[in-house]
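Sequence in, structure out. Go.
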Amino acid sequence: MRHFLLSTVALAALAGQAFAADLPSRKEAPVYVAPPPIFSWTGFYGGLDIGGSWGNANLWVPGYPYTFSHNSTNNGVIGGGFVGYNYQINNFVIGVQGEFDGTGNGNSRYTSGPLGQFGDVYQSKFSQDWIASIDGRLGYAMDRTLFYALGGVAWDQQSADLYNLSTGYSISRSNTRTGYDVGGGFEYAFTNNWTGRLEYRYYNFGNSNNAFFDGNLSGGYYRTTLTDNVFRVGLAYKFGAPEPVVAKY
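Output:
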């Protein structure tokens, strides 16, 4: 009888363990951790930049009895703003950008006879008032870092002044020129909306003939040749950042 009771208790214990194993687990589900968001460069943006410009300017005035040539550096501070749009395809980014910058570029030079028949003293001044451009951009993105090249059409306003310091006579003219620009740089996104950039740009506005309308002093026109090398930093805000891409389970 005792053996029968012990066998019954043992069977009941085994049955209870088997039943408990079939019950749902009461352990809490693991906490879901979303993967980090994937940054996208797609979107409109706008920003400000500032930097330095180093270049060369030549002012050439043909006349009688002396042809005046002023060749000098064209250096100064440059700064302004830009707007644009990027579209990202995998790691490649294409876009278009427009910008406008004021410049402090310019130089001045003194020359004494034989420019005038009586050995007069002359001062020539050349300045570049502003630079604007519309450029295409092509870049390669590594998450939040973008390396890019750009190039397009550029415009600037140039001013030239020629003074006869001996007689007080002067001529001043300004005009807008069209040229081209090429360059490159890299940009980093600190947040989904704010980015910073470092950039180099080369501008070339070629040769231009400009009327002085004064045959007595200048033979009727002057010619300028102008190039610029610009290094600048910029800060931009990207509008409407897309929603982060996360995996779904």
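Check: Residues 39-238 form a domain with the Porin fold (CATH 2.40.160.20). Helices lie at 2-22.
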